[in-house]
Description:
Layout lengths: L11 E3 L2 E3 L3 E6 L6 E7 L2 H18 L4 H17 L1 H12 L3 H21 L6 E4 L9 E9 L3 E4 L7 H13 L3 E4 L6 H11 L8 E3 L4 H9 L5 E5 L2 H10 L4 E5 L5 E4 L5 H13 L11 E5 H16 L19 H16 L3 E4 L11 E4 L6 H4 L6 E7 L2 H9 L3 E2 L1 E5 L3 H10 L4 E4 L15 E2 L2 E2 L4 H7 L1 E9 L3
Parallel strand pairs: 7-8, 7-10, 8-9, 10-11, 12-13, 12-18, 13-16, 15-16, 18-19
Antiparallel strand pairs: 1-2, 3-4, 5-6, 6-22, 11-21, 14-15, 17-20
Helix pairs in contact: 2-4, 2-5, 3-4, 4-5, 5-15, 9-10
Amino acid sequence: MTTQVTSETVPIFLAGEFVNAGTPLEVRDPATGELVATTWQAGPEELERATAAAVEAFAATRRLASFERRDALAHIADRISEDADELAELLSRESGKPIRDANGEVARGALTFRIAAEEALRINGEWLPLDWSAANRGRSGIVRRYPIGPVAGISPFNFPLNLAAHKVAPAIAAGCSIVLKPPSKDPLVMLRVAGYLAETNLPKGAVSILPMDRPTGDRMVADDRFKLLSFTGSPSVGWKMKAEAGKKKVVLELGGNAGAIVDDTADLEWAVARLAYGAFAYSGQVCISVQRIYVVESIFADFRRLFVDKVRQLKVGSPLDPATDLGPMVNARAVARTHEWVGEALERGAKALVGGEPDGLFYPPTVLVDVSKDARVCGEEVFAPVVNLFAVPDFKAAIAEINDSQFGLQCGVFTNDLERTLLAHDELEVGGVIVNDVPTWRTDAMPYGGVKDSGLGREGLRWSIEDMTEPRLLAFARPL
Length: 480
């Protein structure tokens, strides 16, 4: 069964069935204000039905054969690829993401399910020799991984397909049931994916996809019937959820103020091109968006000139225009907050090399210099098309500046010096070091996550599956 998204009503996916239940939820195009579709926001009653179904379904999902989990995931990947153009347009319309980036997200969503299909066949255990002393002669063990139980997943608005896929796909691969809370701002693309899920042979109730308000979603956080909470979103919300999650395992993918380093051995044109993309893709509404750039003094003037020229070429406009680089921000509150933070930095002595006044939900790409380190636009997560440039005396000083932050998600290091590359890996307090590219780069098979306030645990299919399974020992005594 599939569900078609029209300008009318889109049902939610509750325990394997499409239903019209809860409170009507209008989804509007942030660029135009036009109604894309009306769906439903689940309430406590719908959540309870989905939770009970997930608990019941887990008795079946935990016993699915590897090939059954693989086949379901591969089918979803194939269907996403078949409908890629339609899904990208829908994603662009409901989220305001430029169509080029929407196409990329849909391709990544298919890849995420495809990787999960392969990893479903590779949930390996190990044999252990336990005869480490004379008293344990003849002892050995086998460790196998078993699905942890029903999963509560909460995904954000900025990648409404792929970050949701990073909850659903590993849960299916591991043999877990899952209730997913997609973002209320742009839930339609995952409700479309629910149609592909419904075409598989997964047990009924194995997956529910329910837009909810925050109070309803908070019920999932505290419900002990869920054995793992996987949340992607803001640090303030994520750490509060961890405190309320009780005994369940928690994986948090949170925010940052991602930094990049450019040293005097870097390919300057490549660094400029990639950093302009990394700072302003999806209007900076990415948790690994480039927010701080540290350039060694000897090349700072050249970098600054080239970077400003590149940023001035970026096009702000309709998300459906293939030439558009920046579309609208998510809402008026985000625009107002960004402008307030930029204004605060300017009042403290910063200078805007590029920038200007917002136009409705569109905020211009903004490049700042001479920014105070304690300005919010530098020290906190701006989540907007704003980047700060700093000159530093040397590479080690740049590392120190990157580490002088409450966040630690990823860092981009532009260098062609091997010793500096190894030093960055040793010394940077982040979850990932990306050499000769932006921290905004991510591929879906790699371990992804942060330290400090940026999160807890790692995503990436293999690592998510490990979190969604528990090791269990079988120990043998061989009488001698």
